[in-house]
User: Which sequence fits this backbone?
C-alpha cells in the first residue's frame, strides 16, 4: 500500500527533517526571530501558490467529491493558515510604508517549489502526491515536537498549529485520496507518485536550508545537487 511506502520515504529523510537546525531551533525556542521572520514571509508567499495548486488540482478531477475536497483545502489554506501569520506574528511580517507596501520576493527554493507544484504536465494523481508533503511532513513534525517542546517556548503556538484539529483532518483527507488513487494506478504511475512525493520533501528541506543559510537568498546545496 502506498501509505506504507510514503512512510518509508519520510523515514529515509527523518534525520534531515528532525535534526535540521531550523526545526531544532523551533523545538527548543532558540531559533532567531530573524530566521523565523524570513520563514514566515516566504511561507506566506508559498502558501498563496500552494492554495492555487490545490484549487487547480481539484479542477482536474471529473467527480464532484474530489473537486469539493481540494477546493475546500484551498480555502482552508487561504482563510486559516495564512491568516495565522497576521494574527500571531504581526511583528515579524513586513509592515507597509507610508507610500507603498514592502515587496517580498520569493527566494530560489520557494520559487522552484511553487513552479513545481503548479506545473500541470503530470497526471492528477501525481499532482496530489506533489501536494501531500506539505500536510504529512508537518503533521509528523508536530506529533514529534509537541510533547518535546521546551518550557515557555516562544514558538509553541506555531508548532501546535501542525497538530490542530483542522490540519490533522486535512492530512488524513490527503492520505485517503492518495491511497484511493494509487489503488487504481498502474505500477509506473505509482512509482511516479512516490517520486513526486520525494521531490516535494526535498524542496521542503531546501527551503529550511535557505532560510538558515549564512548567505540568505542563495540557492541551497540541496537544489544545486538536483531534486
Assistant:
Amino acid at each position: 500500500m502506498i501509505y506504507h511506502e510514503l512512510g518509508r520515504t519520510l523515514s529515509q529523510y527523518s534525520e534531515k527533517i528532525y535534526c535540521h537546525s531550523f526545526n531544532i531551533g523551533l523545538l527548543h525556542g532558540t531559533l532567531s526571530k530573524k530566521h523565523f521572520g524570513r520563514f514566515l514571509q516566504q511561507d506566506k508567499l508559498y502558501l498563496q501558490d500552494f492554495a492555487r495548486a490545490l484549487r487547480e488540482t481539484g479542477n482536474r478531477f471529473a467527480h464532484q467529491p474530489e473537486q469539493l475536497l481540494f477546493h475546500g483545502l484551498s480555502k482552508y489554506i487561504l482563510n486559516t493558515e495564512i491568516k495565522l501569520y497576521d494574527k500571531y506574528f504581526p511583528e515579524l511580517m513586513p509592515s507597509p510604508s507610508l507610500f507603498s507596501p514592502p515587496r517580498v520576493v520569493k527566494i530560489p527554493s520557494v520559487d522552484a517549489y511553487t513552479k513545481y507544484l503548479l506545473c500541470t504536465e503530470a497526471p492528477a494523481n501525481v499532482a496530489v502526491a506533489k501536494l501531500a508533503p506539505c500536510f504529512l511532513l508537518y503533521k509528523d513534525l508536530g506529533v514529534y515536537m509537541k510533547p518535546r517542546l521546551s518550557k515557555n517556548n516562544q514558538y509553541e503556538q506555531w508548532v501546535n498549529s501542525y497538530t490542530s484539529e483542522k490540519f490533522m483532518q486535512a492530512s488524513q483527507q490527503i492520505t485517503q485520496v492518495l491511497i484511493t488513487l494509487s489503488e487504481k494506478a498502474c505500477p509506473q504511475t505509482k512509482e511516479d507518485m512516490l517520486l513526486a512525493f520525494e521531490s516535494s520533501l526535498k524542496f521542503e528541506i531546501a527551503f529550511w536550508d535557505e532560510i538558515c543559510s549564512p548567505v540568505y537568498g542563495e540557492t541551497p546545496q540541496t537544489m544545486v545537487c538536483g531534486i
The chain has one domain: 2-89+105-224. The first helix runs from residue 2 to 12.
